Prior knowledge:
CATH class: Alpha Beta
Oligomer: single chain
Number of domains: 1
Shape: globular
Amino acid sequence: MFIDTHCHLDAAEFTPDRDSVAAAARAAGVGWMVIPAIGRVNFAGVRELSARTPGSVYALGIHPLFAAAAGPDDIAVLRAEVQAALGDPRFVGIGEIGLDRFEPAALAAFDTQLAVFRAQLRIAADFGLPVLLHIRRAQDQVLRELRRIAPAGGIAHAFNGSLQQAEAFAKLDLRLGMGGELTFERALRIRRIATEMPLDRLVLETDAPDIAPSWIRPGRNLPAATARIGAVLAGLRGLSVAALAAATTANARAALPRLAAAMDGAAVWAVDPAAPAGGLPPTAP
């Protein structure tokens, strides 16, 4: 089984066929998907989508590209939503949060980005929750902030830094998200990280509908692509696909303990639908 640790299944690109996209992922061996929020605008949406989509969990956070429009009220709402979500077994952490020095509009509002990121790291630290990090051209600055306000681990989504930066994130108990970029032969830096970092530091993701792999680009990325991305990573590391799937699943569970609990609860329900499983309903796979 594979886990897509970062998938925007709620995105408008999936409006015509969202349920069939999720079903196709399950059919491809992608047993679980993590759906991160991008801001207050979709906190309810990702929660409700996860509740009705078998094999999915969600995170709550304010994406750096939406940070410029966020204010103290948004941070207060996020904290309240996180507090309320602690009783929901499908809630797994704080995300998508981070820093972006690539998009011009985001860069112009970088001070606000930084303030929003710090506030969200405090929420993660206060509740002992892992984070799903967006990092573009800001690896070292994100590392500095994580050393100041340490969350309970998490994932550096779509990691694209250096090997030295990868090792620094690993020392802070972050896993590295490997996705579609890995499938391009020209992606030498990412492929070096994918092969030289300890296997227990790597997880799989798609960022669907974005960052499509080589066989889709240009086009809409899909969570089902996780399995084939995993096969590419297995080939790079000289592993069987089954071994790679088992390892990255274990890594995702370690990075997101509430995901592990949801998976274990779903397994209990599958055996005995009358058994309590931390509130996870019997509709889960």
